[in-house]
Amino acid sequence: MDFWQGIEALKARWTARAPRITDLLGDGDRNAALTGVAGSFVFDMTKTSIAADDWAELLALAADVPARRDAMFTGARINETEDRAVLHTALRGTDPVMVDGVDVMPGVHDTLARMRAFADEVRGGRFTGQGGTITDVVNIGIGGSDLGPAMAVLALAPFHDGPRCHFVSNVDGADWAETSKGLDPATTLVIVASKTFTTIETLTNAKTARDWMGGSVSDPAAQFAALSTADDKTRDFGIDPSRVLGFEDWVGGRYSVWGPIGLSLMIAIGPDRFDDFLRGAREMDSHFRTAPLAENLPVMLALAGIWNHQVCGYPTRAVLPYDNRLARLPAYLQQLEMESNGKGVTMAGDAVAGVAGPVVWGEPGTNGQHAFYQLIHQGKVPVPCEFMVAARGHEAGLDHHHRLLIANCLAQSEALLKGRSHAEARATIADRFTGAELERQAAHRVFEGNRPSTTLIYPQLTPEVLGGLIALYEHRVFAEGVMLGINSFDQWGVELGKELATSLGPLVDGADASGKDASTQALLAQLLAWRG
Ligand code: F6P
């Protein structure tokens, strides 16, 4: 059956049944069918409105995933619109992978060895700044050249034993100004991370950093390193090739934390722990490649996503890590999911017959509970929630905090599931109100419940677990993209805005704006008036 016909059939049955998730939970086989295990992860999707027969039909919709997956892992040019292989998995792999008849793995391992050597030199004080041992590292990059390492460096803070790492991404000078405050240029290493080395935000920040450093040291470029596929451009910028770590065009920006773009993470936690990070991802790769679809965690996440978005029509999904150090995970997943699957055209160039990727958003729990959970519990549009929590934190003396964290995570999914009826709400306030006022007050305290969620649990947030977690989501995005028939590895939708920003540059300097639409002209005129 065609994917979209399958979706329509599932939608029709789900609408007719209008199931209560609590009723589905009575089914004895449900826990076994809708709970998946991979290495250190257990994924529970029992609190969704997927019934047993739905699950069997959803799995049939994933039938094309294995062939496409195998094509990806073996170096086929599955990024057809850019005519590229998709091999971020090779960055953490061990087995040979051929692209155009050449094994890419010796190059991958050579680059990893260079990263390791440089990270060791920085961490061991053998690579110094012009004022001595490197105390601070600033990664300048944006999108995939920022979000991955920034997210991972924060996530793995308990494992840091290298110099402090900072991240500058926004072309807003505030980002550079705030981040560079208090840094000593003579003991700072600047890493310019840009796959293309053409990204205007990154180059602007890199030049500002070079000027800043040039105010204090005689040879600023000597304290710069670059991570890029564009050797010629890094050379033009003045960075010595010995400090340029390259990668190939088969690594997409948002999938690039596993190689040179992860250098700041490697410097922060050390090469051995970086190896653990890669190993965690490799184990998830192996699971994705070998587990049957019905027990395959990335496929299960993908089908939960397809069910909630394409079948039930819920427009967004919230990622809610009950793990404060995963604070940047929602932003990271926004790029991974929305830049990959936020598409309207199929691989063949036709309009997608339904909706593709959902809006992804989120914040760590418990903070979100005191901010936007009101809407999640009582707003009219259900928001599928993806909870995640570790069994243990890293704060040995603060385990009572962690117990509360776990209790809150489980409480939220339970509250979303069960809700609170009018009668129950009335009972909670019957001692304070009577008559019509009791009914009115009770109405505000009703929770419809029946709100879907999934929960991912793991023992503790270690480098290995983080590697597995990111790989899990990468493969989930891939599997969803295969089912939707789209190319998850291009991002043409970012181009138009870049082109227009280039054309608007001179207008902000006062050039004739008459070619612009009336709205843009008016906004520009007011901004220019205020700029004086
Ligand atoms: O504009 C989008 C994008 O191309 C992302 O896909 C990418 O991660 C980011 O810009 C940064 O690109 P680069 O690493 O080439 O500077």
Unreliable segments of 5+ consecutive residues = none
**Strand order, sheet with most strands:** 1-2-15-14-12-13
Ligand inventory: 6-O-phosphono-beta-D-fructofuranose
CATH C-level of the largest domain:
Alpha Beta
* Helix share bin: 40-55%
Query: According to CATH, what is the topology of the largest domain?
Result: Rossmann fold
Gap between N and C termini: 63 Å
The description of the largest β-sheet is: 6 strands, mixed
How does the helix and strand content classify structurally?
alpha/beta
Mean pLDDT: 97
Shape: globular
Integer count of domains:
3
The total of beta strands comes to 15
Number of H/I helices: 21
Q: Any idea what the CATH superfamily of the largest domain is called?
A: Glucose-6-phosphate isomerase like protein, domain 1
**CATH architecture name of the largest domain:** 3-Layer(aba) Sandwich
Pfam families: PGI
Pathway: Carbohydrate biosynthesis; gluconeogenesis; Carbohydrate degradation; glycolysis; D-glyceraldehyde 3-phosphate and glycerone phosphate from D-glucose: step 2/4
Protein name: Glucose-6-phosphate isomerase
Family: Belongs to the GPI family.
